[in-house]
Amino acid sequence: MARKILVLAETREQVLRNVSYEVIAAGKEISEGGEVVSVLIGENISSLASELIHYGADRVVTVEDAKLSTYTPDGYAQALLATIKEENPEAIIIGHTALGKDLSPKIAAKLQLGLISDVTAIEITGGNVIFSRPIYSGKAFEKQIITDGLIFATIRPNNINPLRKDDTRTGETHSLSVEIKDLRTIVKEVVRKATEGVDLSEAKVIIAGGRGVKSEEGFEPLKELAHVLGGAVGASRGACDANYCDYSLQIGQTGKVVTPDLYIACGISGAIQHLAGMSNSKVIVAINKDPEANIFNVADYGIVGDLFEVVPLLTEEIKALKL
Ligand code: FAD
């Protein structure tokens, strides 16, 4: 059953985020040969439309306005609701990012829709779209179907592979004019936390430190390993609470949910609340002094040892491999 799917592209400082391509791939699967329309909201972003088409969007709708230059729930909701009205899709797919988590309940409430959030897998059986999502902090998965009306879901970043880029693909782009009014949120300034390098929520490799790093300086060997692997540094709440790093690095139930290809947990015990944010990583390596630490129960590879000895050795070995 061919469906028309609307997917939301996300940008940061006029650069498309990876999740924009992942929602297209999810949309393609759900569309069953129908049309995937990508919505691009912002200011001066229309030049990005061709990139979305190269990654599989059949059509792109742009909504541009100076008031949309940074995300606000009111502004984006107005732009997206107008696009939904215009396009009348059968499903809407948004990334389960900070933006998506903020925006999607607002849209669902406005349109009186059910929302399936934090989807990690999609299957189509007997014409139904079945969404899997983790529950109980990732201890179990449930499957949900919307049987009647508009399908609305957010998908967890880094779970669905983008389609292969095809620079020869062409598709139509059109701009939708939406009057953005009565904004209750005005962004005066965007202050970035000093998380150098790769964005944690999009990183393919994450080196995370826990209370075992013992100090702010204790994160230095982790940063070096992240640097040679082209990855990002993350942390447990234990490390954040102890003031060793900023809370923007926190991974877990009350922090960021990440699914990198490689997660290296250094000096992290593996509390259930931490596992909720990283246990779906593709390969997990744990470095811990305590052979009984719970993190070893989810690790693919475990190293029992002092992180201050193991991490620099790993960094040196990887540097040597790259020479
Ligand atoms: P610890 O549990 O103290 O573990 C430190 C580990 O380091 C130990 O296993 C130790 O053996 C090892 N170690 C020490 N020195 C070394 C060394 N030199 N080399 C190698 N290993 C060493 N936590 C999160 O992480 N994220 C969340 O989002 C989160 N949300 C929470 C929400 C709620 C409602 C609650 C109640 C708790 C939450 N927590 C969260 C906290 C969680 O329960 C744990 O307290 C926290 O994850 C522990 O952090 P940790 O593993 O760094 O510290």
Automatic annotation (TrEMBL):
Superkingdom per UniProt: Bacteria
Electron transfer flavoprotein alpha/beta-subunit N-terminal domain boundaries: 5-195
SMART domains: ETF (SM00893)
UniProtKB keywords: Electron transport, FAD, Flavoprotein, Transport
InterPro entries: DHS-like_NAD/FAD-binding_dom, ETF_a/b_N, ETF_a/FixB, ETF_alpha_N, ETF_asu_C, ETF_asu_C_CS, Rossmann-like_a/b/a_fold
Keyword Electron transport in annotation: yes
Keyword Cell division applies: no
Similarity comment text for this entry: Belongs to the ETF alpha-subunit/FixB family.
Protein name listed in UniProt: Electron transfer flavoprotein alpha subunit
